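Title: Prediction job returns without error message
Component: structure pipeline
Severity: low
Priority: P3
Assignee: unassigned

Description:
Job completed but the reporter wants confirmation the result is attached to the right record. Sequence as submitted:
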Amino acid sequence: MNFSAMPSKNQNPLNPKKLLLTKWTAVKPIDKRKHFLVSKVIIPELAEMPIEFVELEAIFDKSVEIIPWRDLKATEAWLQGWA
């Protein structure tokens, strides 16, 4: 089997429209919160504008924060899934 032809996580770009309900792990816990869920994709008021932000909900205490969705690409800060 040729594993080099299989796509890696780095080759799969994140699509902001498909982030809803995805799971994320903070590499360094944020106020004891490590596991997060994308609870909302924030759609801009003007339809022609790109999606810029998502709402993350902490599983630990249900606190919510809004971050630029592109921040989730930073592997030094975020891992996809719950680790």
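Comment from assignee: result matches the submitted record. The CA atoms of residues 2 and 46 lie 45 Å apart.
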